[in-house]
Amino acid sequence: QVQLVESGGGLVQPGGSLRLSCTASGFTFSDYHINWYRQAPGKEREPVAFIANTGRSSNVVNSVKGRFTISRDNAKNTVYLEMKNLKPEDTAVYSCRVRIATRDYWGQGTQVTVSS
């Protein structure tokens, strides 16, 4: 079955860095685009980053541009979200998503807390 497992979250001070991983199984990873989303307490889930199946195309939302980078290693079935210069407003649960046919699959999420 399709599974996505996020890891790499934690508590970090403002200005710090983290690298999140999303490791997939149960489908042909290199055939599918992957998205990262986040949901802050009391807010709706919002998109953060996108990467095409080949890795040749990607983008991040304006609020994290210049600080977050998305990449993937298809040999490891893993997508990464490199986050630098973290701010308190980046505090959220970060999840990855894959859409296969008409169905969305999500991981369980990883908590990122930015606080001094």
Compute the number of strand runs: 11
Mean pLDDT over the full residue set: 97
Order of helices and strands: EEEEEEEEEEE
The low-confidence runs, each spanning 5 or more residues with pLDDT under 50, are: none
Euclidean distance between termini CA atoms: 40 Å
Number of helices: 0
Q: Which word captures the global form?
A: globular
Overall radius of gyration: 13 Å
- Category by helix and strand content: mainly beta
Strand proportion: over 45%
Amount of helix = under 10%
| Main sheet: strands, sense, barrel | 7 strands, mixed
Describe the fold and architecture.
It is a single chain. With 116 residues, the chain is mainly β. Helix content is 0%, strand content 53%. It contains no helices and eleven strands. The strands form two sheets. Strands 2, 4, 5, 6, 9, 10 and 11 form a seven-stranded mixed β-sheet that branches. The chain has a four-stranded antiparallel β-sheet with strand order 1-3-8-7, with no helix packed on it. β4 (34-39) and β5 (46-51) form a beta hairpin. The protein is globular, with a radius of gyration of 13 Å. The mean pLDDT is 97.
Question: How are the SSEs placed, and which strands pair?
Answer:
Layout: E1 3-7, E2 10-12, E3 18-25, E4 34-39, E5 46-51, E6 58-60, E7 68-73, E8 78-83, E9 92-100, E10 103-106, E11 110-114
What's a concise summary of this model?
By secondary structure, the chain is an all-beta fold.
